[in-house]
Amino acid sequence: MHPKTLEDVLNTYREHGHLLYGESVTELQHALQCATFAQQAGEPPVVVAAALLHDYGHLCHQLGEDIADQGVDARHEHIGANRLRGLFQDEIVDAGRLHVAAKRYLCWKEPGYFDQLSDASRQSLHLQGGPMTNAEAREFEREPHFEMAVRVRRYDDMGKVPEMKTPDLDSFRPLLEGFLTRRR
Ligand SMILES: [Fe+2]
Fold this sequence. Notes:
- It contains eleven helices and no strands.
- It is an all-alpha fold.
- Helix 2 (27-40) crosses helix 10 and helix 7 (99-109) crosses helix 9.
- It is globular.
- The two termini are 16 Å apart.
- Residues 30, 54-55, 156 line the site of fe (ii) ion (FE2).
């Protein structure tokens, strides 16, 4: 179901956030950790919001990231973007849509990036198409919000810390409110 309000989105995290992200943290912990790491790095609120919401699609198909173990790529980044488009500003939606591509891009762009990925991320990378080719990377750089997606990706890679303390979901509500499109 497509969320119509911020409350619908928050409820999805409340109802399905307990699902395992797959690396000893839940989906909700992962989202809160990514947002918290972005905040700690001094990122502007728009990046913090995008970091929080980037895996929304995981909570929609309710399989968790470890579905890669089953050889399945559910394209959760597209599911999430489709659900959130129109409710949140495009740069936030696109950062989520492109966060998997950003991993493939960084594998192309930065020597050493691949080596610091978690086992699950390396495994899913294979299913997601592996590192970008030169042509794919040039095309990715033409995406309107690709830089934002790359920034979010770095916090995505960090948000896998068992037992990490973060602010709770509701504390991010005012921040998220600021990026609603108000079209609804
Ligand atoms: Fe993620």
